[in-house]
Specification:
This protein has 218 residues and is an alpha+beta fold. It is 55% helix and 9% strand. It is built from eight helices and four strands, in the order βαβββααααααα. The protein has a four-stranded mixed β-sheet, covered by helices on one side. Helix 1 crosses helix 8 and helix 3 packs parallel to helix 5.
Length: 218
C-alpha cells in the first residue's frame, strides 16, 4: 500500500483548444471520485516531445507516480487507482473484469475512431471511410446506452469515466442525433468530481497564461 499523495504530471501550459481535454484530467477526476490526495507537477510545453522521455517514452502526458509506482499511460494509471478504490472499480471478479473491458473499449474501440475523425474535421477533410467508421461506433454506443444508465452494474465506475470522456468532445457530441449518448455524457459530467477536476485543469492553464504574459512583458 502506497502512502502520501500521488503525483500527476502534465504540461505547464497548452493553447486554448485542448484545455479541458488534456488527459491528466482523467487521473484528476479519478482521484477526486475516490477521495485520493494528489499533487500536480509539470513539464514544459516547449520541447515536450523530448524533455521528459525518461518518464514517458513517447513524450506525452500525463504520467502518474504513486509511491514507487511510475506509470506513463492513462489507462494503466486509471486501472492502478481503481485497484485501490471500490468507488472506481468493483471488487468482485465480474465487476472488475467488466470495468477493465470498458476502459479498453473506450481507449481503443472508441477513441481510436474519434481521434482521427476529429483531426480530419480540424483539417476540413472529408474521409468517407472514417466517417462511416465513426457513425457505426457511435451508433453501437447509442444502442448500448439506450438500455442502461451505467456501463457496469448500477453505478458509476471507471468504465463511465473513460467512455464519457471520449464521447464528451464537442465535435463528437454534435455529430448526429444520439439522445441516449447525450443524456449519458450529461449525467456523467454533472458529477461534482468531474466538475472540480475540469475547473482545476482550466485554472492551471489560465494561471500559466499569466506567468507567460509576465515573462513576455518583463
Amino acid at each position: 500500500m502506497t502512502t502520501g499523495p500521488a503525483t500527476i504530471w502534465t504540461l505547464d501550459w497548452v493553447p486554448d483548444g485542448p484545455r479541458g481535454f488534456v488527459r491528466d484530467l482523467r487521473l484528476r477526476w479519478a482521484c477526486e471520485e475516490a477521495g485520493f490526495p494528489y499533487r500536480v507537477r509539470t513539464v514544459p510545453f516547449e520541447g515536450r516531445e523530448t524533455n521528459h522521455l525518461d518518464r514517458q517514452p513517447f513524450g506525452q502526458v500525463p504520467m502518474l507516480e504513486d509511491g514507487g509506482i511510475r506509470l506513463s499511460e492513462t489507462g494503466a494509471g486509471l486501472i492502478h487507482l481503481g485497484g485501490k478504490s471500490d468507488t472506481l472499480m468493483p471488487t468482485d471478479e465480474k465487476g472488475r473484469a467488466e470495468t477493465i473491458q470498458w476502459i479498453f473499449a473506450g481507449l481503443n474501440t472508441l477513441e481510436m475512431v474519434t481521434n482521427p475523425w476529429i483531426v480530419m474535421q480540424w483539417a476540413k477533410k472529408d474521409v468517407p471511410e472514417i466517417d462511416g467508421w465513426l457513425d457505426n461506433r457511435l451508433g453501437q454506443m447509442e444502442t448500448i446506452l439506450a438500455e442502461r444508465d451505467w456501463l457496469v452494474g448500477d453505478r458509476f465506475t471507471l468504465a463511465d469515466l473513460v467512455v464519457a470522456d471520449v464521447l464528451r468532445v464537442d465535435l463528437v457530441r454534435a455529430h448526429g442525433d444520439r439522445p441516449a449518448s447525450e443524456a449519458y455524457v450529461t449525467r456523467v459530467t454533472d458529477r461534482p468530481a468531474f466538475r472540480k477536476a475540469h475547473a482545476d485543469q482550466m485554472a492551471h492553464f489560465e494561471k500559466a497564461d499569466e506567468t507567460r504574459s509576465e515573462k513576455d512583458n518583463g
